[in-house]
UniProtKB/TrEMBL annotation:
Pfam families: Carb_kinase, YjeF_N. The lineage of its organism: Bacteria, Pseudomonadati, Bacteroidota, Flavobacteriia, Flavobacteriales. This is Bifunctional NAD(P)H-hydrate repair enzyme. Binds 1 potassium ion per subunit. The gene is nnrD. (6S)-NADPHX binds at residues 58-62, 131-137, 160, 326, 386, 450.
Amino acid sequence: MKILEASQLADLDSYSCKEQNISSWELMERAAGLAYEEIKTRLNSATQQIKVLAGPGNNGGDGLAIAYFLAQDGWDVDVFLVNFTSSRSPDNQKNLVRLKNQAKSNIRELTEDSELPEFTSEDLVIDAIFGVGLNRSMPEFVQKLARKHNGSASQCICIDVPSGMYLDQSPGEDEAVFQSDLILTFQTPKLPFYLPDYSGVVGEVKIIDIGLSQKRLSEISSELNLVDLSLAKKLYRPRPRFSHKGTYGHAVLIGGSELMLGSVILSSKSCMHSGVGKTSVLMPSRGHSALIQHLPEAMLVENASEDFISDQDLGFNADAIGIGIGIGTSEAALSALGAWLEKADCPLVIDADALNLIAEHITLKDKKRLRTLDGQVPKKSILTPHPGELRRLVGSWKDDFEKLNLIKDFSKQFDVIVLAKDAYSLCVYQDQVFVNSTGNSGMATAGSGDVLTGLLTGLLAQGYSSLNAAVLGMFLHGLAGDLAAEEMSEESLTASDIIRYFGDSFSKLKA
Ligand SMILES: NC(=O)C1=CN([C@@H]2O[C@H](COP(=O)(O)OP(=O)(O)OC[C@H]3O[C@@H](n4cnc5c(N)ncnc54)[C@H](O)[C@@H]3O)[C@@H](O)[C@H]2O)[C@@H](O)CC1
Ligand SMILES: Nc1ncnc2c1ncn2[C@@H]1O[C@H](COP(=O)(O)OP(=O)(O)O)[C@@H](O)[C@H]1O
Ligand SMILES: [K+]
């Protein structure tokens, strides 16, 4: 699903009105009507007091229409006109006149001199002050209002976006943003919903299809996408009936060191469950018997050392290699990694300590040059850093938008795919950004990343392009975690459980 910028949304909006031969007011009426239908299903207590906060723009226009519909249906509504300017958009003005004529709700004006309303646990607040039009700090009294609301026990439904949220930047340190329980957003998801900087204000998100032009939407080029089931289905390649294990590739997992052997076993198991034809494992020899015990399907590659990975020749052609899990940061690991990066002639997934070693050997002042691993990270490799590893690779960022730019720069510089793992992982290739929609906090448990690496390596070996393997694998991994959590709770979820739900996860792609 495309994620659009404010200017693209405005374009889509006006194109749709022309295409459908409706006025902008009629579109607002439709959007507000659909938002109201959703609000209605959530109104359960007759004692609930509804407070609509409406700004003077089109977001406020939505709010005034919603207030009108609520009052029509007999709800008590207090409407606060948050008048930070004396001008109103024409559609807002039209809705205000209609609301006044209806004479069923209490309308009060709030300006910077007004006493701000109280919010209690009985209140349902509908925040329609600013939508996607916010382009500078909210006026101080609106920020005070947001802080007062956020400090109360009232419920809040935000229309389109929480007031105070920017689509293209994080809030300043002292800037207030309305905390939402529910966001009813129009037509397309908005990027900040998925970024850690806004995590404190984003509640449940419901995307409302307001019937904007599908034709125009398909024409608008967007480099930002939310990876949902329909996108994942497009990437998935069904298995031909007449096929054999050679059809699905030979994956190799290279990982482990003295005390970190379980992670490679986990990752190999994940790979074997990805649909791959064969999985071979190169690991310290002291882990060999454990691997065969836990994963008899896997094949072992001889390894010269008991404790560290080596750069032993495989003796066959690998279709994909996943490297780095549990290798540690010793000289032995560094030298084996260097050798593998140099000789690998198949796509790679690079994870964990391999990333730390690479980060250490990027010249800090001039990230253009790799020193020890000089230019050796093969192009189109998938790098899967968690936030700590990412920081070591690309440097520090002041906010999520700067982080995204650093990742894009890094991806361009080394021509690699960066899968930045997080609550909503971001898969970035050059300027293209894929935001994952699956996953849950039950996956914040040791080994979940190892499972992802195995899955990605398996998909790569099956012939998916690096970008498609990364995007599809990221989605399937989170989906398996979600399905597992549904059955067994987030708390008791372990990384091994994620693998057990790969089957159900793949089934969703075929449904
Ligand atoms: N795009 C769409 O498809 C639709 C949009 N609609 C609504 O329209 C909203 C966008 O409306 P607007 O473009 O009128 O913008 P807003 O209602 O978000 O903001 C109003 C105006 O305030 C001004 N402004 C921005 N930051 C300010 C600040 N810090 N202090 C003072 N003034 C500031 C801007 O000029 C802006 O246009 C959407 O979020 C949505 O709620 C809906 O009515 C239906 C359809
Ligand atoms: N709160 C969360 N919501 C969704 N996914 C999460 C959450 N926390 C972690 N994950 C996912 O779990 C995995 C954790 O990876 P990582 O930190 O490398 O784990 P490990 O190193 O223990 O294997 C990533 O894919 C990440 O996206
Ligand atoms: K809003």
